[in-house]
Amino acid sequence: MLTKIFLYCILLFTPTLLVAQRAKISFEKTTFDMGFVLENGGKVTHHFKFINKGKAPLLIKYIETTCGCTTPKWNKRPILPRDSGIISVTFNPKDRPGVFSKKIIVYTNATPPNTVLRLEGEVIAKPTDIPKEYPFTAGDLRINTDTIHLKQVETKQQIINLINTGKKNISIVSILKPDYLEINCTPLSLEKEMMGNLIIRYLPQHADKIKPGDHVLINTSQGSSYKFTISPN
User: Fold this and answer.
1) pLDDT digits (tens, 9 = 90+) for 64-86
2) How far apart are alpha carbons 177 and 181 in whole angstroms?
3) Complete domains list, the chain, with CATH
């Protein structure tokens, strides 16, 4: 009788013990909004971070995407308990203007056995009339505006669009600006026909340095430059 009870207990608790000893994958975020992506801006990548919260090594068996424009990359080696890892997903916006939501399905030996990740955003279509849409020039670099609007920057940010109309890569090698502005160029180098951005943000801690006649000067790898006017409006 005692033997039967012992065997019954083993059968009852074995599944629970096996589940408790499995790997468990936990992502920081399963959805990432890439915001606005330029169609001619080249491929963009996001890194989904995760941790193995289980008690057994975690193995990513394979990853499935719903579009050939989305490419995953991950470490094929097991992730030990409490260790972390990254799944890098690259999206190619070429010929895909408009809003997008790409599904990436991760299959593992963990609990749950599969996890759905998403990349979302909107692809800004490449220009159809470059001289009209990008009327300002610095060598082969064309620019869509010549003015930085301080009122807009103070409340949010301003994005200035760039496009390389030449045959060689162009980089912004230096930016001369007042202390109350933060300016980042993305990507750092523009290939032929590639679009890019100058992202401009306001630094209120330096507001006392605003003065009439302020401007921003960019210098390119071609030796050309362009001066932006800073407008208070």
Assistant:
1) 998 999 999 999 999 999 999 99
2) 7
3) 26-124 (2.60.40.10), 130-231 (2.60.40.10)
